[in-house]
Amino acid sequence: MHLFPAIDLRSNQVVRLHQGDYGKQTTYGADPVEQAQAFAAAGASWLHVVDLDGARSGHMVHLDVIRRICKETKLKVEVGGGVRGEPQIDALLNAGVTRVILGTAALQRWQWFESLMGNPTYRGRLVLGLDAREGKLAVSGWEQTTDVAAIDIARKVSDWPLAAIVYTDIATDGTMQGPNIEATRQIAEATHTPIVASGGVGTLEHLRALRTLPIQGAIVGRALYEGAFTIDEAVKAIEG
């Protein structure tokens, strides 16, 4: 398993939202590149970046910041938020991003998303973002909830050449009260696609609990920013 420290970008600042609510924001820093460098120096190998402004507006806002993070660190970076078409995917890959997360665009334009699987450039480079509220998928920066079950989509893409699925339980996101272990287990067991879990991690015990699941990694944000544990402690807990 891998640790994915998270940087959520809004107005060029590092922030966190509580349960995806744009009205409940905590700002942790003004320089995302310095934050990424700090994660790398502390022992992280991956970085999870979300362009919150992009997710809400439907077009990427922070490409320049993301390009600098890729250039000025050796982190493997995955990015989501505002990616609605191939031009954005290509721009991110050309900026040095390791893999690109598609959420809203994939779910709302399913045939188009499926067609991307035939492009050899994208094989193993695309991640499907499944953000669920009580098991149902949410889109457009989590401001719209659908009737589609996350687990059904996970099953549907089981044999697709995706790099991973990032599964976020919105109810736990930003709470530090613990991840939804059972829902994550169900998603992981329903598909052959590697799962990266997101939402709720607040202690090292939470990370150790996730380590018992058949998943690729876990995304951690607020707990790192508020000093619940260090990157080094988290890496040891999750990667062994």
Write up this protein.
This protein has 240 residues and is of the alpha/beta class. It starts with a strand and ends with a helix. It has an eight-stranded parallel barrel with strand order 1-4-5-6-7-10-11-12, surrounded by seven helices. α1 (32-41) packs parallel to α3 (63-72). The model has no long low-confidence stretch (mean pLDDT 94). The protein has helices at residues 32-41, 52-57, 63-72, 86-94, 104-108, 110-116, 150-156, 181-190, 204-211, 222-225, 231-239, and strands spanning 2-10, 13-18, 21-29, 46-51, 76-80, 99-102, 126-133, 136-139, 144-149, 164-169, 195-198, 217-220. The chain has a single domain, classed as Aldolase class I (TIM Barrel, Alpha-Beta Barrel). A hairpin with a 2-residue loop joins β1 and β2.
Number of helices: 11
Helix content, binned percent = 25-40%
Q: Which strands sit side by side, in order, in the main sheet?
A: 1-4-5-6-7-10-11-12
Structural class: alpha/beta
Quick recap:
By secondary structure, the protein is of the alpha/beta class.
Name its key features.
240 residues, alpha/beta, TIM Barrel, 8-stranded parallel β-barrel, 11 helices, 12 strands
Question: What's the arrangement of secondary structure elements?
Answer:
Elements: E1 2-10, E2 13-18, E3 21-29, H1 32-41, E4 46-51, H2 52-57, H3 63-72, E5 76-80, H4 86-94, E6 99-102, H5 104-108, H6 110-116, E7 126-133, E8 136-139, E9 144-149, H7 150-156, E10 164-169, H8 181-190, E11 195-198, H9 204-211, E12 217-220, H10 222-225, H11 231-239
Parallel strand pairs: 1-4, 1-12, 4-5, 5-6, 6-7, 7-10, 10-11, 11-12
Antiparallel strand pairs: 1-2, 2-3, 7-8, 8-9
Helix pairs in contact: 1-3, 7-8, 9-11
